[in-house]
Amino acid sequence: MARMIFVNLPVADVAASTAFYEAIGMVKNEKFSNPQASAMVWSDTIHFMLLDHAFYSTFTPKQIIDAHSTSGMLLALAFDSRAEVDAITAAAVAAGGAQLHDAEDIGFMYSRAFADPDGHGFGPFWMDPAAAADGPQQMADAAA
Question: Signal peptide position in this chain (predicted)?
């Protein structure tokens, strides 16, 4: 089996969150979904598990944060073009998410940011493949 990542996110309303994630291009895997959880496929190796608070609580004794006011993580999503970055951000806002800041363009990298309806933060970005191949110091020099 390939190495995979499953991002478990606590959500207030599984159906509403499922609709949001479908609107930004993810596909629901019905085999691993039920009324308390939706398995949303981002790629062959990355899935987002949208879990209602009661079900999420069975995995941890810790308090679930309010992601609208507390940041627990930011999820960076790589895209092949600036247009794809703009498209997912526009889809997120149209589906009930919130834009977190204006576009940032530093030449070799272009990024946006949005939050889902539960406040989980996402940073879609595009990076020039040649600049990425040169490594972090050359990218920092290019941005200066």
Answer: none
**DSSP H or E stretch at residue 39:** strand 37-41
Q: What is the pTM for the complete model shown?
A: 0.88
| Domains of the chain: residue spans and CATH | 1-59 (3.10.180.10), 71-144 (3.10.180.10)
Strand partners, 41: 27, 47
Q: Are 78 and 125 in contact (CB under 8 A)?
A: yes
Residues 6+ away with beta carbon under 8 Å from 41? 26, 27, 28, 29, 47
Q: For residue 30, what are its two tokens?
A: 């019905």
The contacts of residue 114 (CB under 8 Å, 6+ apart) are 88, 89, 92, 93, 97, 98, 99, 100, 121, 122, 124
